């Protein structure tokens, strides 16, 4: 797959912290309830920590109490790509940044949350950077 932002692995390792690299480039997961944006209510835009692409907004963020930031829809349908993930003996849908291919988390459907899409984009805080709205 080809992305607008492509870098050699050594460059990603140099630009990202070890934790960011493990999640964004190696599809890791940060421990539940440890991410900086899990309970954030700040209004703003969440961008990819690897390339800066705008991914989600605070408008679509909701409280799912799952341990990671949850959104019911991306900022723009082109902002993320969805990939079938059959790792760890499960069938899930991986969410990646469509600009650089970095792993963000997974999306789940039909869980019954009172949201307009019945989807939960379960995203690692370490994959995101929040830019608060101007006051």
Automatic annotation (TrEMBL):
PANTHER family: METHIONINE SULFOXIDE REDUCTASE (PTHR10173), METHIONINE-R-SULFOXIDE REDUCTASE B1 (PTHR10173:SF52)
Lineage top rank: taxon: Bacteria
Catalytic reactions on record: L-methionyl-[protein] + [thioredoxin]-disulfide + H2O = L-methionyl-(R)-S-oxide-[protein] + [thioredoxin]-dithiol
GO biological process, any: response to oxidative stress
InterPro entries in UniProt: Met_Sox_Rdtase_MsrB, Met_Sox_Rdtase_MsrB_dom, Mss4-like_sf
Cofactor names: Zn(2+)
A Pfam family of this chain: SelR
Gene Ontology cellular component terms for the protein in this record: cytoplasm
Keywords, alphabetical: Metal-binding, Oxidoreductase, Zinc
Boundaries of every MsrB domain copy: 9-133
Protein's name according to its UniProt entry: peptide-methionine (R)-S-oxide reductase
UniProt organism field: Streptomyces fructofermentans
The enzyme's E.C. designation: 1.8.4.12
GO function terms (MF aspect): metal ion binding; peptide-methionine (R)-S-oxide reductase activity
